[in-house]
Amino acid sequence: MRIFSKLMFIICLINNIITHAQNYPQNYFRNPLNIPMQLAANFGAIRTNHFHMGLDLRTNSQENLPVVAAAEGYVSRIKVERYGFGNAVYITHPNGYTTVYAHLNKYFNKLDEYVKERQYKDEKWEQDITFQPGQFPVEKGQQIALSGNTGGSAGPHLHFEIRNTKTEECLNPLLFGFAIPDTVAPIISGLYWYDRRFSTYEPGANGIAVRRAGNIYTSNLVQVNSPEISFGIKAVDKANQGFNLGIYNAELLMDGKLIYSFKIDKIHYDDTRYINGCIDYTKFIRDKMGIQHLADLPGMKLQNYSTPNLTGIINLQDEEVHNIEIVLKDTNGNTSRLTTKLQLNTTSEKITATGKTVMPNEGKTISTENAEINFSKNAVYDAVNFNMYEKAEVDQNTVSNSLVLQNPYIPVQDEYTLKIKPNRRLSDAEKDKAIILLDYGSDKDVVKAKWNGDRAEGQFNRLGTAKLLIDNTLPSVSSGWAEGALVNNSSLLLKGTTKVGDIISFRAELDGKWLRFARVKDNFVYTFDEKCPKGSGVHTLKVTTINTAGNTNVQTFTFRR
């Protein structure tokens, strides 16, 4: 059995190389780690508001493993940021590709020293620095960093990308010939159909149970009451390592004819939010369920995803039984098939659009007595019967009615403008401390209000419940040591807190000079170095923080080294 599995892997790998050799160089890039490549996530996996844009490589739940250059080239860029990539290195290669390595703990020594000097020169921790080819050349296999868990990472791993240097499109790294064993076909756990006479959001998904026999799946006859439908599929790719990976390629056939397909070969970061038009967003946000549409939504404009001129919309002209086949493949060619039969049973009445319907490719302004929302023509992926209304608020810091904007389970592609009129006259000082809070259930977005006449304005890209507040509270940080205490730890940790909003500015000065603290989620960390060596005596740390509303707090701490 083991020999057979190895043989099947070799056959799949050869097929993969033959399939993609004309498009991408095979075996040019090496594994960026010195341990076998094991996937925690693949290219195109479903994430909140974006596709996963590279490979997440497991680091055995450890940090500080050596990260090496996947090929010769030069360090063309680094990033240091609170969320996102955390610490990242970009290497540009002579063959027209750029590789990206993210969530790092530390760069290699010379680069790390350069970045540190730049941070102290700019008196700014977050950085986005570009380099010339001769500054930091690297050889294939040269150590460039240590792996970590920085930025928007939920556990130790290495995020690895391959990009087209010219277009900056992210390419599927699994098409470049990496030897990652995979003999497991995608696993299907659900089939769904949607009434497409109006919108996929109303009434939503209709579930069909599926049965499995190996890599072949079947379901009972799908009887529908609409002559215009589309399908969605709930499935994951497992590879050989147990993690739920994204589906690479899907095809939908009716009576033997291909009517829709998608393949996730390349995506630009400018377009990655279009994932919300490729999935059942309501199911994903509300039920944590990943269902991918096997049809285009009218406002989904992601390039190089679905086959042109194949919409996936099924128009049933009769009440005959039709054969449906869904084929799912991974990059190694492992294939699963779902077959079923489809029949129009009875026709129900079409859902009627209302005057507040927001349509794809059309801008829309909707108003209540004290508020207004402005959608661009790119705002929605499918038609939305938009429900917007006001509710009275009793919180003394809230100076408007709460404004219900549909619900958090309908996506928007770009930012909309929200205008709210306060429920009383505000002084100039109050207007200066006004913020708009949007609660979308799983989290909150807070922006400083901009005033246009008697209305506060803010921009958001999610729906939920919004309100206008006056925030006079101060942000703060708390230390983990007693005043004047001897600190022998390797670092200083300050915990940041705000009553509402975020700490948008943090500045630390040690004995009057700027000190480099890293932002780790809501906390701030300084790792002791030559700026504050052991035995250097008593020190004063001055910390200045500013929150979303613009309130400033200055705190002073003392300690000994």
UniProtKB/TrEMBL annotation:
<protein>
    <submittedName>
        <fullName>Peptidase family M23</fullName>
    </submittedName>
</protein>
<dbReference type="Pfam" id="PF01551">
    <property type="entry name" value="Peptidase_M23"/>
</dbReference>
<dbReference type="InterPro" id="IPR016047">
    <property type="entry name" value="M23ase_b-sheet_dom"/>
</dbReference>
<feature type="domain" description="M23ase beta-sheet core">
    <location>
        <begin position="51"/>
        <end position="119"/>
    </location>
</feature>
<dbReference type="InterPro" id="IPR050570">
    <property type="entry name" value="Cell_wall_metabolism_enzyme"/>
</dbReference>
<feature type="domain" description="M23ase beta-sheet core">
    <location>
        <begin position="131"/>
        <end position="166"/>
    </location>
</feature>
<dbReference type="GO" id="GO:0004222">
    <property type="term" value="F:metalloendopeptidase activity"/>
</dbReference>
<keyword id="KW-0732">Signal</keyword>
<feature type="signal peptide">
    <location>
        <begin position="1"/>
        <end position="21"/>
    </location>
</feature>
<dbReference type="InterPro" id="IPR011055">
    <property type="entry name" value="Dup_hybrid_motif"/>
</dbReference>
